[in-house]
Amino acid sequence: MSSAAGPHARESVALALPAIEATAAAAPHPIVVGISGYGGSGKSTLARALVAALPDAVRMRGDDFLDPERSHHRSPDWDGVERDRLRDTVLRPFREGRPSTFQRFDWSRGVIGDPEPVPAAQVMIVDLVGLFHPSVLDDLDVTVWCDIDLETAGERGMARDRSLGRDHDHLWREVWMPNDCDFDVAFAPRSRAMLVVPTS
Question: Number of helices and strands (H, E) in the chain?
Fold first, then answer.
């Protein structure tokens, strides 16, 4: 495991790793591990730590599948998360073991990037807000919920953005946290998770 992983990440990895390893060993195909939770809940930290802990794993960054305009607006189902694009160009080809290409959103240029091959591995870790949606759940072999209350997650997210010189407090308070709340009510993502790991 990466030495950069903090104590909470190490504890979360210890909780999640046995189920992931068992699923990968039993599955006749490469598996996808979906990590979700509120914005600021520690999804990316856990994803990086799991990739470092597993012998043949890759991470697919969820932010590469956000629509930059729609994800900045209120919606009851995290409409700005392009789950269909993720499912069709990455998750299904990866699980089927067939070559495919996908396109990331290039945040530096504000456009969809050039096609690149879907990486091959035994395990793919995907971390994304609004991931546990009916349109995608069947394509996730293991589902992990980063368990932290919404207010604390939002505060952590705002603090992280400020540390990077980004003042997104208004978006957190007026868009992203309300979107998380609405998604919670509509889809009960925590109850869809095979594993609930504390990340507070």
Answer: 8, 9
**Identity of residue 77:** D
pLDDT digits (tens, 9 = 90+) for 67-105: 988 999 999 999 999 999 999 999 999 999 999 999 998
C-beta of residue 87 within 8 angstroms of C-beta of residue 130: no
CATH number 3.40.50.1380 given to 7-198? no
146: which strand partners?
197
- Calculate the average pLDDT of the chain: 93
Give 47-79 as a DSSP string: HHHHHHHSSSEEEEEGGGGB-TTGGGS--TT-T
Q: Name the 3-class secondary structure at 38.
A: coil
Per-residue CA distances from 119 to 46, 57, 95, 102, 176 (Å): 20, 10, 11, 10, 30
